[in-house]
Amino acid sequence: MTTFSSGLSACIRSYLTLKRALGRQYAAEEWVLGHLDRFLAGRGVDLVAETFAAWCLTLQHLASGTRRARMRIVRNLCLYRRRGEPDCFVPDVRLFPPVHQAIRPHIFTDREIVHLLAVARTLAHSSRSPVRPENMRLAIVVLSTTGLRRGELTRLTVGDYDPPQRTLAIRESKFHKSRLVPLSADTAREVEHLIEIRDRRRLPAGSETPLLWHRPLPASGYSGGSFGGAMRALFRRAGVRTATGHLPRTHDFRHAFAVNALLRWYRAGLDVQAKLPFLAAYMGHVSIVSTAYYLQFVEPLAAAASARFADHCGDLITGPTGAGGAR
After folding, report:
1. Is 37 a residue whose pLDDT tops 60?
2. Which residues fall within 8 angstroms of residue 104, CB to CB, at 6 or more apart?
Protein backbone atom coordinates (compact mmCIF):
# COMPACT_ATOMS: atom_id res chain seq x y z
CA MET A 1 0.00 0.00 0.00
CA THR A 2 1.37 3.39 -1.03
CA THR A 3 2.07 5.91 1.72
CA PHE A 4 0.86 9.42 0.87
CA SER A 5 2.34 12.45 2.64
CA SER A 6 1.53 15.61 0.67
CA GLY A 7 -1.23 18.06 1.50
CA LEU A 8 -3.38 16.11 -0.94
CA SER A 9 -2.85 12.78 0.87
CA ALA A 10 -6.19 12.64 2.72
CA CYS A 11 -8.09 13.36 -0.49
CA ILE A 12 -6.15 10.67 -2.39
CA ARG A 13 -6.79 8.03 0.26
CA SER A 14 -10.49 8.88 0.42
CA TYR A 15 -10.76 8.80 -3.37
CA LEU A 16 -9.08 5.39 -3.67
CA THR A 17 -11.23 3.97 -0.87
CA LEU A 18 -14.39 5.08 -2.67
CA LYS A 19 -13.36 3.65 -6.02
CA ARG A 20 -12.37 0.31 -4.52
CA ALA A 21 -15.67 0.12 -2.65
CA LEU A 22 -17.30 0.37 -6.09
CA GLY A 23 -15.36 -2.70 -7.28
CA ARG A 24 -12.42 -1.01 -8.96
CA GLN A 25 -8.88 -2.26 -8.35
CA TYR A 26 -7.17 1.07 -9.10
CA ALA A 27 -3.62 -0.27 -8.79
CA ALA A 28 -2.34 1.77 -11.74
CA GLU A 29 -4.20 4.84 -10.52
CA GLU A 30 -2.68 4.45 -7.05
CA TRP A 31 0.80 4.34 -8.59
CA VAL A 32 0.19 7.53 -10.62
CA LEU A 33 -1.30 9.37 -7.66
CA GLY A 34 1.62 8.21 -5.52
CA HIS A 35 3.99 9.73 -8.07
CA LEU A 36 2.05 13.00 -7.95
CA ASP A 37 1.97 12.92 -4.13
CA ARG A 38 5.75 12.52 -3.89
CA PHE A 39 6.21 15.38 -6.36
CA LEU A 40 4.00 17.71 -4.28
CA ALA A 41 5.43 16.60 -0.93
CA GLY A 42 9.00 17.13 -2.11
CA ARG A 43 8.21 20.73 -2.96
CA GLY A 44 5.77 21.42 -0.14
CA VAL A 45 3.13 22.74 -2.53
CA ASP A 46 -0.55 22.22 -3.30
CA LEU A 47 -1.93 21.06 -6.64
CA VAL A 48 -2.61 24.19 -8.70
CA ALA A 49 -2.21 25.00 -12.39
CA GLU A 50 1.51 25.77 -12.07
CA THR A 51 2.42 22.68 -10.07
CA PHE A 52 0.30 20.46 -12.31
CA ALA A 53 2.17 21.83 -15.34
CA ALA A 54 5.49 21.20 -13.59
CA TRP A 55 4.46 17.63 -12.74
CA CYS A 56 3.43 17.03 -16.36
CA LEU A 57 6.95 18.00 -17.44
CA THR A 58 8.24 14.94 -15.54
CA LEU A 59 6.19 12.78 -17.96
CA GLN A 60 7.74 14.13 -21.16
CA HIS A 61 9.73 10.94 -21.74
CA LEU A 62 6.49 8.96 -22.09
CA ALA A 63 4.30 8.48 -25.16
CA SER A 64 1.56 11.06 -25.58
CA GLY A 65 -1.18 8.50 -24.95
CA THR A 66 0.43 7.44 -21.67
CA ARG A 67 0.84 11.08 -20.59
CA ARG A 68 -2.80 11.78 -21.40
CA ALA A 69 -3.95 8.75 -19.39
CA ARG A 70 -1.95 9.81 -16.32
CA MET A 71 -3.13 13.41 -16.58
CA ARG A 72 -6.71 12.20 -16.77
CA ILE A 73 -6.24 10.14 -13.58
CA VAL A 74 -5.19 13.33 -11.78
CA ARG A 75 -8.10 15.25 -13.29
CA ASN A 76 -10.57 12.65 -12.01
CA LEU A 77 -9.06 13.07 -8.54
CA CYS A 78 -9.52 16.84 -8.81
CA LEU A 79 -13.16 16.42 -9.83
CA TYR A 80 -13.65 14.29 -6.72
CA ARG A 81 -11.86 16.93 -4.60
CA ARG A 82 -14.16 19.65 -5.98
CA ARG A 83 -17.12 18.04 -4.20
CA GLY A 84 -15.75 19.34 -0.90
CA GLU A 85 -13.62 22.20 -2.21
CA PRO A 86 -15.56 23.98 -4.98
CA ASP A 87 -12.69 26.37 -5.78
CA CYS A 88 -9.95 23.75 -6.13
CA PHE A 89 -7.93 23.41 -9.32
CA VAL A 90 -9.18 21.04 -12.06
CA PRO A 91 -6.99 20.50 -15.15
CA ASP A 92 -8.44 21.54 -18.50
CA VAL A 93 -8.72 18.43 -20.66
CA ARG A 94 -8.37 20.59 -23.79
CA LEU A 95 -4.72 21.12 -22.88
CA PHE A 96 -3.97 17.39 -22.70
CA PRO A 97 -2.05 15.59 -25.46
CA PRO A 98 -4.30 14.60 -28.39
CA VAL A 99 -6.22 11.34 -28.27
CA HIS A 100 -4.66 8.53 -30.26
CA GLN A 101 -6.84 6.95 -32.93
CA ALA A 102 -8.29 3.75 -31.54
CA ILE A 103 -6.78 0.55 -32.90
CA ARG A 104 -9.21 -1.15 -35.24
CA PRO A 105 -9.58 -4.74 -34.04
CA HIS A 106 -8.91 -7.67 -36.32
CA ILE A 107 -12.00 -9.85 -36.74
CA PHE A 108 -10.69 -13.36 -37.29
CA THR A 109 -12.33 -15.33 -40.07
CA ASP A 110 -13.24 -19.00 -39.75
CA ARG A 111 -10.48 -19.79 -42.24
CA GLU A 112 -7.89 -18.00 -40.10
CA ILE A 113 -9.00 -19.86 -36.98
CA VAL A 114 -8.73 -23.21 -38.76
CA HIS A 115 -5.29 -22.25 -40.07
CA LEU A 116 -4.09 -21.17 -36.61
CA LEU A 117 -5.23 -24.51 -35.17
CA ALA A 118 -3.32 -26.36 -37.88
CA VAL A 119 -0.15 -24.34 -37.28
CA ALA A 120 -0.44 -24.78 -33.50
CA ARG A 121 -0.32 -28.54 -34.07
CA THR A 122 3.11 -28.16 -35.72
CA LEU A 123 4.72 -26.41 -32.74
CA ALA A 124 7.54 -28.34 -31.10
CA HIS A 125 7.45 -29.81 -27.61
CA SER A 126 10.39 -28.93 -25.42
CA SER A 127 11.65 -29.52 -21.91
CA ARG A 128 10.73 -25.91 -21.11
CA SER A 129 7.23 -26.28 -22.57
CA PRO A 130 6.18 -29.96 -22.74
CA VAL A 131 2.65 -29.29 -24.00
CA ARG A 132 3.14 -26.15 -26.08
CA PRO A 133 1.16 -27.28 -29.16
CA GLU A 134 -1.70 -28.59 -27.02
CA ASN A 135 -1.74 -25.38 -24.96
CA MET A 136 -1.86 -23.10 -27.99
CA ARG A 137 -4.56 -25.17 -29.67
CA LEU A 138 -6.75 -25.03 -26.57
CA ALA A 139 -6.08 -21.30 -26.18
CA ILE A 140 -7.31 -20.59 -29.71
CA VAL A 141 -10.40 -22.76 -29.23
CA VAL A 142 -11.34 -21.19 -25.88
CA LEU A 143 -10.63 -17.59 -26.92
CA SER A 144 -12.56 -17.87 -30.18
CA THR A 145 -15.59 -19.66 -28.70
CA THR A 146 -15.91 -17.83 -25.36
CA GLY A 147 -14.36 -14.38 -25.84
CA LEU A 148 -12.47 -14.63 -22.53
CA ARG A 149 -10.01 -11.91 -21.62
CA ARG A 150 -6.36 -12.93 -21.85
CA GLY A 151 -5.90 -12.70 -18.08
CA GLU A 152 -9.03 -14.75 -17.44
CA LEU A 153 -7.67 -17.55 -19.60
CA THR A 154 -4.16 -17.58 -18.10
CA ARG A 155 -5.54 -17.59 -14.53
CA LEU A 156 -7.77 -20.63 -15.10
CA THR A 157 -6.92 -23.79 -13.16
CA VAL A 158 -7.91 -27.36 -13.94
CA GLY A 159 -10.37 -27.20 -11.02
CA ASP A 160 -12.16 -24.25 -12.65
CA TYR A 161 -13.50 -26.63 -15.29
CA ASP A 162 -16.66 -28.53 -14.30
CA PRO A 163 -16.98 -31.63 -16.55
CA PRO A 164 -20.63 -32.49 -15.78
CA GLN A 165 -21.79 -28.91 -16.35
CA ARG A 166 -19.25 -28.10 -19.08
CA THR A 167 -18.51 -24.70 -17.54
CA LEU A 168 -15.47 -22.61 -16.68
CA ALA A 169 -15.47 -20.66 -13.41
CA ILE A 170 -14.07 -17.17 -13.97
CA ARG A 171 -13.16 -15.86 -10.53
CA GLU A 172 -12.76 -12.25 -9.43
CA SER A 173 -12.15 -10.86 -12.88
CA LYS A 174 -12.51 -7.23 -13.95
CA PHE A 175 -14.58 -5.15 -11.50
CA HIS A 176 -14.37 -8.12 -9.07
CA LYS A 177 -17.01 -9.95 -11.11
CA SER A 178 -17.12 -13.76 -11.09
CA ARG A 179 -19.17 -15.82 -13.50
CA LEU A 180 -19.70 -19.28 -14.97
CA VAL A 181 -19.04 -19.56 -18.69
CA PRO A 182 -20.85 -22.45 -20.43
CA LEU A 183 -18.81 -24.21 -23.11
CA SER A 184 -19.90 -25.83 -26.32
CA ALA A 185 -19.55 -29.61 -26.51
CA ASP A 186 -16.54 -29.28 -28.84
CA THR A 187 -14.76 -26.79 -26.58
CA ALA A 188 -15.42 -28.96 -23.52
CA ARG A 189 -13.89 -31.94 -25.34
CA GLU A 190 -10.77 -29.89 -26.11
CA VAL A 191 -10.38 -29.00 -22.41
CA GLU A 192 -10.81 -32.61 -21.36
CA HIS A 193 -8.42 -33.81 -24.06
CA LEU A 194 -5.61 -31.56 -22.77
CA ILE A 195 -6.16 -32.72 -19.18
CA GLU A 196 -6.09 -36.36 -20.34
CA ILE A 197 -2.82 -35.77 -22.21
CA ARG A 198 -1.21 -34.34 -19.08
CA ASP A 199 -2.47 -37.30 -17.02
CA ARG A 200 -1.14 -39.75 -19.59
CA ARG A 201 2.28 -38.11 -19.68
CA ARG A 202 2.33 -37.81 -15.89
CA LEU A 203 2.48 -34.05 -16.04
CA PRO A 204 0.83 -31.89 -13.36
CA ALA A 205 -2.96 -32.04 -13.75
CA GLY A 206 -4.27 -31.44 -10.22
CA SER A 207 -7.17 -29.12 -9.60
CA GLU A 208 -4.90 -26.25 -8.50
CA THR A 209 -2.55 -26.42 -11.50
CA PRO A 210 -3.01 -23.92 -14.34
CA LEU A 211 -5.25 -25.11 -17.14
CA LEU A 212 -2.59 -23.88 -19.55
CA TRP A 213 0.28 -25.41 -17.58
CA HIS A 214 3.42 -24.20 -19.28
CA ARG A 215 6.73 -25.19 -17.75
CA PRO A 216 8.05 -27.59 -15.12
CA LEU A 217 10.66 -25.36 -13.42
CA PRO A 218 9.24 -23.39 -11.81
CA ALA A 219 5.94 -25.23 -12.24
CA SER A 220 3.59 -22.57 -13.52
CA GLY A 221 1.28 -21.39 -16.24
CA TYR A 222 1.73 -18.45 -18.56
CA SER A 223 2.02 -14.90 -17.36
CA GLY A 224 0.04 -12.37 -19.38
CA GLY A 225 3.21 -11.19 -21.11
CA SER A 226 4.57 -14.64 -21.93
CA PHE A 227 1.21 -15.76 -23.29
CA GLY A 228 0.94 -12.64 -25.43
CA GLY A 229 4.41 -13.35 -26.80
CA ALA A 230 3.48 -16.95 -27.57
CA MET A 231 0.37 -15.81 -29.45
CA ARG A 232 2.32 -13.24 -31.47
CA ALA A 233 4.84 -15.94 -32.42
CA LEU A 234 1.96 -18.15 -33.55
CA PHE A 235 0.39 -15.35 -35.62
CA ARG A 236 3.76 -14.69 -37.23
CA ARG A 237 4.34 -18.37 -38.00
CA ALA A 238 0.83 -18.71 -39.46
CA GLY A 239 1.17 -15.53 -41.52
CA VAL A 240 -1.99 -14.05 -40.01
CA ARG A 241 -1.93 -10.26 -40.32
CA THR A 242 -4.37 -7.39 -39.98
CA ALA A 243 -5.50 -5.26 -42.91
CA THR A 244 -2.63 -2.86 -42.12
CA GLY A 245 -0.04 -5.64 -42.15
CA HIS A 246 0.45 -5.80 -38.38
CA LEU A 247 0.15 -8.85 -36.16
CA PRO A 248 -3.27 -9.19 -34.51
CA ARG A 249 -3.64 -8.80 -30.74
CA THR A 250 -4.79 -11.61 -28.49
CA HIS A 251 -7.60 -9.26 -27.40
CA ASP A 252 -8.93 -9.29 -30.98
CA PHE A 253 -10.37 -12.76 -30.31
CA ARG A 254 -12.73 -11.06 -27.84
CA HIS A 255 -13.84 -8.54 -30.46
CA ALA A 256 -14.33 -11.31 -33.01
CA PHE A 257 -16.40 -13.36 -30.56
CA ALA A 258 -18.79 -10.44 -29.93
CA VAL A 259 -19.16 -9.58 -33.62
CA ASN A 260 -19.76 -13.20 -34.59
CA ALA A 261 -22.43 -13.54 -31.88
CA LEU A 262 -24.32 -10.63 -33.45
CA LEU A 263 -23.95 -12.11 -36.92
CA ARG A 264 -25.45 -15.42 -35.76
CA TRP A 265 -28.41 -13.60 -34.21
CA TYR A 266 -29.02 -11.47 -37.31
CA ARG A 267 -28.89 -14.53 -39.56
CA ALA A 268 -31.22 -16.47 -37.25
CA GLY A 269 -33.75 -13.63 -37.34
CA LEU A 270 -33.52 -12.99 -33.59
CA ASP A 271 -34.08 -9.70 -31.74
CA VAL A 272 -30.48 -8.49 -31.38
CA GLN A 273 -31.27 -5.74 -28.87
CA ALA A 274 -33.01 -8.23 -26.59
CA LYS A 275 -29.99 -10.54 -26.79
CA LEU A 276 -27.35 -7.95 -25.88
CA PRO A 277 -27.82 -8.30 -22.07
CA PHE A 278 -27.07 -12.04 -22.41
CA LEU A 279 -23.89 -11.27 -24.35
CA ALA A 280 -22.88 -8.69 -21.73
CA ALA A 281 -23.34 -11.21 -18.92
CA TYR A 282 -21.45 -13.92 -20.79
CA MET A 283 -18.51 -11.60 -21.47
CA GLY A 284 -18.42 -10.35 -17.88
CA HIS A 285 -19.45 -6.75 -18.56
CA VAL A 286 -21.21 -4.54 -16.04
CA SER A 287 -23.61 -3.29 -18.73
CA ILE A 288 -24.32 -3.46 -22.45
CA VAL A 289 -22.52 -0.10 -22.80
CA SER A 290 -19.23 -1.95 -22.27
CA THR A 291 -20.31 -4.67 -24.69
CA ALA A 292 -21.04 -2.09 -27.41
CA TYR A 293 -17.33 -1.21 -27.47
CA TYR A 294 -16.65 -4.65 -28.98
CA LEU A 295 -19.35 -4.48 -31.63
CA GLN A 296 -17.38 -3.10 -34.56
CA PHE A 297 -19.46 -2.29 -37.64
CA VAL A 298 -17.54 -4.56 -40.02
CA GLU A 299 -18.77 -5.39 -43.51
CA PRO A 300 -20.52 -8.73 -42.72
CA LEU A 301 -22.33 -7.06 -39.81
CA ALA A 302 -23.27 -4.07 -41.96
CA ALA A 303 -24.68 -6.40 -44.62
CA ALA A 304 -26.70 -8.37 -42.07
CA ALA A 305 -28.09 -5.19 -40.48
CA SER A 306 -28.97 -3.77 -43.92
CA ALA A 307 -30.73 -7.01 -44.90
CA ARG A 308 -32.71 -6.96 -41.64
CA PHE A 309 -33.73 -3.34 -42.26
CA ALA A 310 -34.74 -4.11 -45.86
CA ASP A 311 -36.89 -7.06 -44.74
CA HIS A 312 -38.76 -4.97 -42.17
CA CYS A 313 -38.83 -1.49 -43.71
CA GLY A 314 -38.08 -1.91 -47.40
CA ASP A 315 -41.70 -1.31 -48.41
CA LEU A 316 -41.59 2.14 -46.79
CA ILE A 317 -38.85 3.32 -49.13
CA THR A 318 -39.80 4.09 -52.72
CA GLY A 319 -37.42 5.31 -55.36
CA PRO A 320 -38.13 7.35 -58.49
CA THR A 321 -40.79 5.74 -60.70
CA GLY A 322 -40.15 7.86 -63.74
CA ALA A 323 -39.45 11.39 -64.89
CA GLY A 324 -42.52 12.73 -63.12
CA GLY A 325 -42.88 9.93 -60.62
CA ALA A 326 -43.11 10.11 -56.86
CA ARG A 327 -39.89 10.63 -54.92
Report:
1. yes
2. 242, 243, 296
What is the distance, to the nearest Å, from the Cα of residue 22 to the centroid of all Cα atoms in its chain?
Answer: 20
Q: Per the confidence metrics, is the pTM higher than 0.70? A: no
Give pLDDT, residue 175.
Answer: 63
Residues 6+ apart with CB under 8 A from 287: 280
Assess contact for 213 and 204: CB atoms under 8 A. Answer: yes
Contact of 213 with 198, CB cutoff 8 Å: yes
pLDDT value for 325: 46
Give yes or no for a contact between 145 and 256, defined as CB atoms under 8 angstroms apart: no
Question: Where exactly are the structural domains of the chain?
Answer: 9-95, 110-238, 252-315
Rg (CA), the chain: 25
Give the pLDDT confidence score for residue 327 in this predicted structure. Answer: 42
What long-range pairs does 241-244 form, CB within 8 A, spacing at least 24? 242/104, 242/106, 243/104, 243/106
Lowest mean pLDDT among 32-41, 186-195, 315-324: 315-324
Average pLDDT over residues 154-181: 90
Q: What dihedral angle (degrees, nearest 10) is formed by the CA atoms of 145, 246, 292, 259?
A: -40
Exposure class string for 25-58: b at 16+ Cβ within 10 A, else e: ebeebbebbebbbebbeeeebebeeebbeebbee
Could you report the per-residue pLDDT of 238-262, keeping only the tens digit for each? 999 999 999 999 999 999 999 888 8
Amino acid identity, residue 53? A
The answer to whether 140 and 117 are in contact (CB under 8 A) is: yes
3-state DSSP assignment of residue 282: helix
Q: Which fold does the domain 110-238 belong to in CATH?
A: hpI Integrase; Chain A (1.10.443)
